[in-house]
Amino acid sequence: MMKSKADEEDYWNSSKFIAFTFEDADDELSRLKESKKAVNSIGELIEEDDEEDLEKVSWSGDPVGSISWSVKEMASANQRTDREPAFPKISTQTPSLNKSQSGLSLSSLFKGKAKGGNLQSFSDMLGDSSLRLYTPELRKPKSEYKDLVGDWSAEETVQRLQQGKAVSLEKFRSLQDKLLLLDLAVAAHDGNAITAVLIYLKRTLCKEVLFRELESRQTALRHFIHYLTETGEQRLLLELLRALGRTEEAALLQYKEYKNITDENKRRDFLKSSLSLPFAVEDMAHIQDHYTLLERQIIIEAADRKAEREAKVEVFQKFPRKASILNMPLITTLYYCCFYHYNEPEGTFSSPLNVRQTFKISEKQYFTTALAARAKLKAWMDVDALFSSRNWLGFTKKKSPLSFQRVVDILQKNSAPTRVLQEYVGLVNDAELRISLAQKHKCHDIVINTYRDMKDRQMLAEYRKKVERGSAEERKIDELLSNLQIRWKN
Fold this sequence. Notes:
By secondary structure, the chain is mainly alpha-helical. The protein is built from 28 helices and two strands. The chain has a two-stranded antiparallel sheet with strand order 1-2.
């Protein structure tokens, strides 16, 4: 039946189907471009959202953590006890995008899940690196952790520790097994294995049991003490030493804690309290001297700081102090007192003689320190007085507990003038050494007089060439060479 033209127009206008036009191709292309643009922007939208807004999904599409996901996970775990976990195969081919087959919509993508389809298939179709897939963390294959949970015996465990392999010691739970493991590590003579087992025992045994068992295992005990010392576990180490009856070692260890105290008054009080600890006799004398020295240093430091601030003592103005005397060694304290307080009466704390007597400093040590301090100040009269000694007849004689060669070295290092050096070079007993020192320090009179005493005319004539022409030394040599009363040996 033929329709009229008006009826055909009503049909096409009222039908849900749209007639084909050449403009339709352009519209379809523009819609495709807009769709692609929207898909490409999915990755950016996901990155901009907080992770809390994203819902993680499993391979099946169920939200991670949901009841259905947990049930499926437990079921699949029971089915994969004897075989490796199965993973979804990802196809390398890119199928065509079919909205009806994908089961995905833009709204579901923004939430990070599919309506009912497979999320993996969607990623295959898009192939866009900007799109992130959120999946649960997969289980590692057994080959990666079998060394850690393997059913190893104690012997095999120690061998693996020697080889540097990772093993778990948690399976050794009884005291007998733990001690067997320790004994095997000691028998293997491997320090790393012994330390690893000791760390495990320290963590899993009470202190009383651990200390009791280590007492009969001296090698392991030494390793444990060294380990605690290196890691700085002072409190546990003190408890161990006391439990073993090694009270003197525990006292020394506790005494060393003074190094961590910075305030000098608190350090002094700590040292005073340490005097009650059970030290050995020789150690007790050392602790007593340490406490007495620090107490004296605090007194001297306070007085000298005040004198320096008030500018009433000349020596502090000419030679300002470069450092505090607090916590300095004994010899440094003696040098300081010889430098700043040399002439003070013996009854004062800062008197060098008082320091010498209090701490039983030897004559040689005191002499060396005082000589260096007074030579540094260029106090040559004090230096000379150190050597003066009277015999029973009342005659003054220079005497030194040091060799005069050493005395010359100390004076030379402190830039002593030639006239001072010459006096002490002449006191060196050995002629050859005296000549060598005199030539080194240009003490010409010592060389000339020594050659004269040796009756060595040739050496004296040779030395004449080394002195300055027309000098007093040259004239003196000429007088000696022309003296007929001297019986030369050559």
